[in-house]
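Worked example 2:
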Amino acid sequence: MKNNSKFYTYRITWLEDGGEYLGLCAEFPSLSYLHKNPSEALDGIASLVCDVVQDMRKNNEKIPEALSKKEYSGKFVVRIPPEKNTENCQLKPWKKVLV
């Protein structure tokens, strides 16, 4: 089975306290990689994720699906307090918006 770790979502951020860049992967939130160079931080986290995926595969563990490969329904649900919902519904006839 092919290692698709290159399709994962990576992020590099600067850590002022440590004076280094932090490499992160959204699909593996427990992993990180520090380096003084941003390119090396990206390469480091990508390599670490690749190693972890290979290890997970060897141990027959479930490998996270890349966010870029997931299919989404398009449905977006937001919860609001009941009072706000009541207010919105009462004002709806006077507003030209969908509630």
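The chain is about 30% helix and 15% strand. The mean pLDDT is 89.
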